[in-house]
Amino acid sequence: MRVGVSRLRPEAPLRGRLRLSSLRRERYRHPQWGGRAVCRVLVVDDDLDNVESLALFVRLLGHEVETARDGQQAIEAAKQFCPDLVLLDIGLPQLDGYEVAERLRAGEHGTSMFLVAITGWDRDEETERSREAGFDHYLTKPVDPALLERLIGSLCARGGPPPA
Fold first, then answer.
1. Residue spans per domain, the chain
2. How far apart, in whole angstroms, are the C-alpha atoms of residue 58 and residue 64?
3. Which residue among 35, 47, 70, 143 is the one 20 to 30 A from 94 at the CA level?
4. What letter would DSSP give residue 69?
5. pTM for the whole thing?
6. 135 near 155, Cβ under 8 Å?
7. Could you tell me whether strands 40-44 and 64-68 are parallel, antiparallel, or unpaired per DSSP bridges?
8. At what angle do helices 48-60 and 145-158 cross, to 10 degrees?
């Protein structure tokens, strides 16, 4: 298993999916963080240690964070919180991450969210299935904190997904 990031296949780029308006980006610029854009991030994982550690890391980067422990909670949290970014574990009980991604994409704010699959599975078929479910990016566990920081920073600074 490779550690770190595995981008979705370049032959099917999804970079154009997310376009946050300049008004929305301005709304999340926070003076406490040097005027840097602050994103709303939803962290979803059924493992308590994973969800808490990822949420803490993202909060330490200066972003707003909500958490969910299963697929149904994630869908409800996304409706209420309207996240810019969803860090979503694939291996959830009941509704798996693929189903959650499909439902989020079909929802009212589905095209304005950047969805990142986080999983311990690093197989080509999983990457392809993630793309088909609507994920924008694919990370394998354990997630490299520096890669995650760059991904979130790039997304929030530009109001859109990071470059390929």
1. 4-158
2. 8
3. 143
4. S
5. 0.77
6. no
7. parallel
8. 50
Strand order in the sheet with 114-119: 4-5, 137-140, 114-119, 85-89, 40-44, 64-68
How far is 20 from 58, CA to CA, in rounded Å? 20
Residue pair 160/137 in contact by the 8 Å Cβ criterion: no
CB 61 within 8 A of CB 153: yes
Rg (Cα) of the chain, in Å, rounded?
Answer: 14
Rounded to an integer, what distance in angstroms lies between the CA atom of residue 56 and that of residue 110? 25
Say how far apart CA 21 and CA 123 lie, in whole Å: 35
Q: Which residues of 148-160 are buried (b: 16+ CB within 10 A; e: fewer)?
A: beebbbebbeebb
Instruction: Give the count of beta carbons closer than 10 Å to the beta carbon of residue 97.
Output: 26
Homologous superfamily of 4-158: Response regulator (3.40.50.2300)
CB-facing half-sphere around the CA of 65: CA atoms within 13 A: 19
Report which of 66, 117, 79, 122 is spatially closest to residue 96, judged by C-alpha positions.
117
User: Tell me: the pLDDT tens digits for 72-124?
Assistant: 999 999 999 999 999 999 999 999 999 999 999 999 888 889 999 999 887 78
